[in-house]
Amino acid sequence: MALTQYLTDTQLILNDPNALFWNTTALTNWINKARNRIAETTQCVRVLVPGTGSILTIAVANGGSGYATAPTVTISAPDGLGATVQATATATLSGGVVTAITVTNPTTNTGYVAAPTVTLSGGGYTIAATAGAVTTSPYVTTVVGQETYSLNSAAISAAVQSVQGVQRAIGIQSVSVAWGSFKPTLDYAPFTTFQARYRSYNVGQQNYPAVWARQGRGASSTIYLWPIPGQVSQMELDTYCQPIPLVTDLTYEAIPEPFTDGVKYYAAYLAYMNAQRKEDAMWMDNLYRQHLIENGVADTPSYSPSAYDGDW
Q1: What's the predicted TM-score (pTM) here?
Q2: Which of 237, 80, 212 is nearest to 158 (CA)?
């Protein structure tokens, strides 16, 4: 759904197709407020924050000298769980010196947790070249000895915002942490229970986390883990998020259909409230709520836990 379509739909509902009573700047503001309200109410903008990353770039620490041909670049295999694709790269040579290392599959390699080992071999060098800093796509891991993880921290924010059209995480549904060759979802405990039963251990027990809790509300809430992580492990967070504001028709819409259908009604509600036309505003609010219910039903089919019902 493009911004222009939202504007047209809202103007038609307001019976103001030529923007005589409400200008497009004001309507755009209300449309974006409506989009945020729908994202918050329905939790329809979901992001599974990844626990592994992709190798994007590799710097050259020392270009070496005397190379007759470009050396072969080898990147160590991914160390994360799940689907992984090893990164590949090539070296660029100029005057016998390695001037660049280019990752050849930056959009498809995946599964890295620890920094990879990058080696350059062959080429008939006089002085060997070495690789430097490696940059990856954003991902989230546990930190040894760190109990708390803020939802608006730099690491989580970067991972969330790497998803097209998403602005910030405003809540969290579940947490999974890798334990060896498994990646179970942790048990959830309300923070009061978590505080009483788990944080009462004053020895700062460290191990693989088994329980999580959330302290605070909204985008500034904090995730607590118990036991406190004793090792770096990939951590996946199932979050619900706010979309970025629509600015032009090129801005990506993260709200999925059919939930986009209610935007015009809530934007019209805000427009009527601004004009102090309260009866019209309440009418639009009722239409908005009705469409939220219908959209939710449309998106919630009935599921059978098992097609065989234990009969085989």
Answers
A1: 0.86
A2: 237
7, 32 contact by CB (below 8 A): no
Length, in residues, of the chain: 312
In sequence order, what are the residues at sequence separation of 6 or more whose Cβ sits closer than 8 angstroms to the Cβ of residue 22?
A: 11, 14, 16, 271, 274
Q: What is the pLDDT of residue 142?
A: 96
Residue 39 tokens read as 């994202």
**CA nearest neighbour of 264 among 70, 46, 11:** 11
CB count, 10 Å around CB of 2?
13
**Dihedral sign from CA coordinates of 260, 261, 265, 266:** negative
The residue extents of the domains of the chain are: 3-44+255-294, 46-51+140-242, 55-136
Q: In the numeric block, which tokens belong to residue 282?
A: 């309440």
Query: Token digits for 224?
Result: 């607590």
Helix ranges, the chain (H): 3-13, 24-42, 154-161, 191-197, 263-274, 278-298
Contact partners, residue 248, CB within 8 Å, separation at least 6? 3
Q: How far is 148 from 168, CA to CA, in rounded Å? A: 18
Phi, psi dihedrals of residue 158, rounded to the nearest 5°: -65, -40
> Whole-angstrom Cα distance, residue 304 to residue 288?
31
Q: How far apart are CA 73 and CA 93, in angstroms?
A: 12
Instruction: Work out the average pLDDT over 77-83.
Output: 91
Q: Is the peptide bond before 209 cis (omega within 30 degrees of 0)?
A: no
Question: Is pLDDT above 60 for 53?
Answer: yes
- CB of 147 within 8 A of CB of 211? no
Q: pLDDT tens for residues 181-218?
A: 899 999 999 999 999 999 887 667 889 999 999 999 98
